[in-house]
């Protein structure tokens, strides 16, 4: 198995990836944007518990990382939409794998065995 280089100023690739997409809300934002373009309030409604300030911060960080695109329309009131960039789309399989893992291993989300579902 490959190891992360010790005492390397940039850390290992996993550390770098988690720096960009880690945290409580970034993965959730990416998951919701995988289903298509969303407005700010649509995202906020789909993520109970996130504050407006935190969602704004997470969106800005994802935008600066080049994972999402922010489109502002010159309307009154202004309309702002968020979507995945091509770079953000490259995370699709990772986010879906995290979803599947959570459904299997996180007690709250774990699927019931087929025999219990019948």
Please describe what this structure looks like.
The protein has a single domain (13-100), classed as Arc Repressor Mutant, subunit A (Orthogonal Bundle). β2 and β3 (79-84) form a beta hairpin. The termini are far apart. The chain is 49% helix and 12% strand. With 118 residues, it is mainly alpha-helical.
Task: Please tag this protein with its features.
single chain, 118 residues, mainly alpha, Arc Repressor Mutant, subunit A, three-stranded antiparallel sheet, 3 strands
Outline of this structure?
By secondary structure, the protein is mainly alpha-helical.
Under CATH, the homologous superfamily reads Winged helix-like DNA-binding domain superfamily/Winged helix DNA-binding domain
CATH topology: Arc Repressor Mutant, subunit A
Largest beta-sheet details: 3 strands, antiparallel
Strand content: 5-15%
Quote the average pLDDT: 87
Total number of helical segments?
7
Secondary structure layout plus pairing:
Blueprint: H1 13-21, H2 26-33, E1 38-39, H3 40-45, H4 52-64, E2 68-73, E3 79-84, H5 86-89, H6 92-105, H7 114-117
Antiparallel strand pairs: 1-3, 2-3
């Amino acid at each position: 198995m490959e190891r992360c280089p010790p005492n390397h100023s940039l850390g290992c690739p996993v550390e770098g990836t988690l720096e960009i997409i880690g945290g409580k809300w970034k993965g959730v934002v990416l998951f919701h944007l995988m289903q298509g373009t969303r407005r700010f309030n649509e995202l906020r409604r789909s993520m109970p518990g996130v504050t407006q300030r935190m969602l704004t911060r997470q969106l800005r960080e994802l935008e600066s990382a080049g994972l999402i695109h922010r489109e502002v329309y010159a309307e009154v009131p202004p309309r702002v939409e968020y979507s995945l960039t091509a770079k953000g789309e490259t995370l699709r399989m990772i986010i879906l794998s995290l979803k599947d893992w959570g459904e299997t291993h996180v007690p709250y989300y774990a699927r019931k065995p087929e025999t219990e579902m019948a």
